[in-house]
Design goal:
- It contains seven helices and two strands.
- It has 230 residues and is mainly α.
- It has one domain.
- A hairpin with a 2-residue loop joins β1 and β2.
- α2 packs across α6, α2 crosses α7 and α5 packs antiparallel against α6.
- One of its GO terms (molecular function) is transmembrane transporter activity.
């Protein structure tokens, strides 16, 4: 089943909305430090891996070109949210406002951290989509589970390698950074593995409902061809 469309379906639109919500929610949840089995992590771990699962579903069903549109849409919406949060944080509070410190802790994202987050997201997300797309062509559509896991490893590795040194270099001891990066990759990949049975069912339902199962033969993988979706 292959189709060429210069339009998006309702289901693709709903997945895109969920993708954007996950990214924005991850920004807020990242401000809380949590402990999982004695391992210190950020709250964003709860929701951020869902964006990679959505990326896998979109790339598998609709192909790399629509995944590219999804990624840039998520980037734009997240950038808008972070910018508005920073602007509101910068505007002086009312005389009776007493929660500025808490508000700043959530929305006063440092420019260095914000830049690192945006760059890491773009590189990691496109690495995930590229591996999914290329492996699907190579395997003839078989072994979805393997490419879903390996694409997550590729994406999360790129994300962590970029984000942690850029955002936390000089803040976190140098010898601790590799540990942080490794745990992020391992736990987010484990998240993908646990969710895999549900992901497989969703992908099957999507392919059946949409009547699509796109193979990206001969496409342009440039990340800048944003509106080339058909």
């Amino acid at each position: 089943m292959t189709k060429t469309k210069q339009q998006v379906s309702v289901l693709f639109m709903l997945f895109s909305i969920l993708f954007c919500v996950c990214l924005i929610a991850a920004n807020i949840l990242e401000t809380k430090q949590i402990s999982v089995f004695g391992i210190s992590l950020t709250g964003g771990l709860i929701v951020f891996p869902v964006s990679y699962i959505i990326n896998d579903c979109v790339c598998e069903v609709w192909g790399f070109r629509k995944a590219r549109l999804l990624i840039w849409t998520g980037f734009a919406m997240n950038f808008f949210f972070v910018t508005m949060g920073a602007l509101c944080d910068w505007i002086p509070g009312a005389p009776y406002w007493t929660n500025q410190e808490g508000f700043h802790a959530i929305f006063g994202l440092a420019p260095r951290v914000a830049a690192a987050s945006f760059v890491a997201f773009i590189v990691g997300s496109f690495a995930n989509a590229y591996v999914m797309s290329k492996m699907k062509i190579h395997d003839g559509g078989k072994r979805f589970s393997l490419r879903a896991i390996l694409s997550t490893v590729a994406g999360e590795t790129c994300d962590s390698i970029i984000f942690f040194p850029l955002a936390l270099g000089g803040v976190v001891p140098t010898e601790e950074l590799p540990k942080l990066m490794l745990w992020q990759v391992l736990l987010k990949t484990l998240y993908e593995v646990i969710a895999l049975p549900l992901t497989i069912r969703i992908v099957r339902k999507l392919k059946s409902h949409e009547g699509e199962d796109v193979y990206d033969n001969g496409i342009n993988y440039s990340i800048w061809q944003i509106f080339s979706i058909g």
